[in-house]
Amino acid sequence: MVVPGVVAPGTEPEPVTDPDAPGRPTLRHLLLIPVITALLAGTLGGALGYAFAVRGGAGAAVLGGAPAEVPALAQRKPESLAGVAERVLPSVVTVRVSSLGGTSEGSGFIATADGHVITNDHVVAGGSGKASVVFSDGSTAPATIVGQDAESDIAVIKVSRPGLRPVEFGDSDALAVGDPVLAIGSPLSLANTVTAGIVSALDRTMQAGEPGGPVRYYAAIQTDAAVNHGNSGGPLVDGAGRVVGVNSTIKSLVAEGQEAGNIGLAFAIPINQAKRVTQDIIGTGKARRTVIGARADGPAGVVGGGLRLAEVEPSGPADGAGLKVGDVILKINGRPMTEPTDLTALVRKYAPGSVVTVEYRRGSARQNTSVTLAADAK
Questions:
Q1: Where are the transmembrane segments (predicted)?
Q2: What is the mean pLDDT of residues 201-224?
Q3: Is residue 203 among the annotated active site residues?
Q4: CA separation for the pair 265, 199 (Å, rounded)
Q5: Which CATH superfamily is domain 168-284 in?
Q6: Cα angle at 326 between 323 and 328, to 5 degrees?
Q7: Which of 73-77, 184-188, 213-217 has the lowest mean pLDDT?
Q8: What is the DSSP letter of 129?
Q9: Is the separation of the CB atoms in 205 and 219 below 8 Å?
């Protein structure tokens, strides 16, 4: 029998709780807490998203994909166009020369660590002997004209500045039509301009010059890289960043007196010829001209083409090789001769002392002879 108020032996008293005291949450309560939290978070997130959408444009689309890893310029592959440009640009300068007619401007490139810069003769022609150069970083330095050769259109100026980086020279005789090239310079005063193209033709014989001025001859490298006024004297470089030519002239479809512009026909002096002239100018102050000792007065005007010799200098290279007045020069080292310019320009491509093969016709007979080219007496 259980007596009220008395705890039976061996039994625990019933727990007594205060209904007004805070109790421990039940399982039901525990389950309701995350559900309510999720609902509140969803509502708040939707409200914020709507607010941001309204401020940024309702329904604005996300454009583009995830950003890709783009290499820095210093990490460009050396053989890429960007890599070549990065290496060569510090060696290219803008050349400014003052004269009575104002200031002429062109391009040039550092040829030696002690400051010799190659440019075109027509860039410095008529100057006072003083010039200045602007480097790729925008800094400037005074320069003096060391020497120039009007007929080859090469001039050398000198700057005094530590830490100059000369270009690397290539071999213009190793070029092939279709090789990629870059033209670097300051066209229309736009410094550090790089344009790309290919070698369009080789040994394109050129006769250039202003009326009343010197006549310039060279067997040019033709390129479709964009070249304009101000590119003159700048380098034409190959796919490895080696200088293979000196940008010099362009062809353009304009009337006389109008400003010419690029139409994809630009011409550069082969660097092998430019280097030889530069070394002559640095060493002696003037350049030697290569001659064959003969003069052609025009196309032969007969089947098979060629140039008829109007004059052969006694004891000159052509005379020593057995050529005579009236002989028709057909080819020099395999290059067909069609205009008198061809003979002069192609011969000047070679250094004095070079031996070239001349194919000619005397009467109806075709013959070959070897001619050792010489330097003129000027």
A1: 30-53
A2: 88
A3: no
A4: 11
A5: Trypsin-like serine proteases (2.40.10.10)
A6: 75
A7: 73-77
A8: S
A9: yes
Catalytic residue among 91, 104, 122, 203: 122
Instruction: Give me the percent of the chain exceeding a pLDDT of 90.
Output: 63
- Domain map of the chain by residue range? 81-159, 168-284, 290-375
How many whole angstroms separate alpha carbon 30 and alpha carbon 163? Answer: 77
114 as an active site residue: the answer is no
Long-range Cβ pairs for the range 176-180 (8 Å, 24+): 176/202, 177/201, 177/202, 179/238, 179/239, 180/238, 180/239
| Interatomic CA distance for residues 42 and 71, integer angstroms | 41
Catalytic residue of the set 104, 186, 232, 248: 232
Q: What is the mean pLDDT of the chain?
A: 84
| Contacts (Cβ under 8 Å, ≥6 apart) of 137 | 90
Cα–Cα distance, 309 to 294 (Å, whole number): 7
* Catalytic residue chosen out of the listed positions 121, 153, 224, 342: 153
Fold equal for 81-159 and 290-375: no
Q: Say what the pTM is.
A: 0.79
